[in-house]
Amino acid sequence: MTREQVTTNILVIGAGPIGIEVASGLKYAGADYIQIEGGALAQTIYNWPGRARFFSSPERVAVAGIPIQTNHQEMITREEYLAYLRNVVEIRELEVSTYEKAVSIERTGESSDHGFHVITKRLVGGRNIFCSRIVFASGDMSFHNQLGIPGEDTVYKNTGLNMIRHTLDDPHLYFGRRILIIGGKNSALETALRCFRCGAKVSLSYRKKALEKEHTNSRLHLELSILISKGYIDFYPQTVPVEFHPGLAVLKNTDDSLKETADLEEIETDFVIVATGFHADLTLFEQIGIAFEGDERIPCYDPKTMETNIPGVFLAGTAISGGRQTYKDFIGTSHDHTVKIVKKIMGVENIPVGTVHSRRYPFSRADIESKPFQND
């Protein structure tokens, strides 16, 4: 099958919230661009558990100058946000080629007007895309973090059901069953609460001494702490799983003060949800020659323009996180990426980003890391 060949000025890789906002800004500025997304529109959001709620407020996750309105004026759900993003694409009349995945990138020479050759795969066939600039808006949640321990692929032979899962699909599946949650951050806490409320017998294993109030949602932390203290949810602090067997998880205590003979504990459980985070796919970054810093492999870029060490290659959204495992970059802290990229490429400023002006307020990583206002 002959591959289609197309030429464009800018290729946007990724169509999550910030990828959509970048495309909207480029169109507003009159740019010639193509946008591709390896899965469905906003595939990462789609992969979230059903009816999951954002921790960020609606005005922080709104994009392209279009506000989010809900009938409850509270945090938006996964389903509501997906509907909102579809509306943004239609209102801004953006063209997104979904289910088109970039599989390789090469530089064609600095003297070429179109310095990059990107090969893609589509549902049928694929394309050769030649472009002058690339914007990576590919996020940082491409793959689940695997534990790499025996039994992680345990399947119940009688039913074919996986014992170990990495995300909550529907808590209804665990009604009347025992479930062990591995992790201690927001996703683990929310999973534990939803399964408890759905009638599951819930246990929680966390590698640290206690759930960290300063690093988790205050409501989730309070509710979990109450349920644990009253014995409704079993808590295994300072433990990590070391192997799984059908109906059984083996935990190792991470407290060095315990004797080796006493640091293993067997937990009877029907299912396990490993809520230990995700990591980015950095393959294309490596192919094109983006430089990285530190053990977490943070990609190098100019914070004033979002351009990497490769001229013409830009990063937007949580793609700047690289291999970082502590979440410091969010939708709400990334709106300025669109502004900087469009200004650098097109020389156009004042493009619509975030929500409407009346509800737009400065927000950055520093606001998340600083202590909240306290009325003394």
Brief characterization of the structure:
The chain contains 9 helices and 21 strands. The protein has helices at residues 17-28, 43-46, 58-61, 78-91, 186-197, 218-229, 283-288, 335-346, 365-369; strands at 4-13, 33-36, 96-97, 101-107, 116-121, 126-136, 143-144, 155-156, 161-162, 164-165, 178-182, 201-206, 234-237, 239-245, 248-253, 264-268, 271-274, 278-279, 292-293, 298-299, 313-315.
Top keywords for this entry?
single chain; 376 residues; alpha/beta; FAD/NAD(P)-binding domain; 2 domains; 25% strand
Written account of the structure:
The protein has 376 residues and is α/β, with parallel strands linked by helices. It folds into two domains: 4-142 and 278-369, FAD/NAD(P)-binding domain, CATH 3.50.50; 146-274, FAD/NAD(P)-binding domain (3-Layer(bba) Sandwich). It has helices at residues 17-28, 43-46, 58-61, 78-91, 186-197, 218-229, 283-288, 335-346, 365-369; strands at residues 4-13, 33-36, 96-97, 101-107, 116-121, 126-136, 143-144, 155-156, 161-162, 164-165, 178-182, 201-206, 234-237, 239-245, 248-253, 264-268, 271-274, 278-279, 292-293, 298-299, 313-315. Strands 1, 2, 3, 4, 5, 6 and 21 form a seven-stranded mixed sheet that branches. Strands 10-17-11-12-13 form a five-stranded parallel sheet, with helices on one face. Helix 1 (17-28) packs parallel to helix 8 (335-346) and helix 5 packs across helix 6 (218-229). It starts with a strand and ends in a 7-residue tail after the last helix. 37% of the residues are buried.
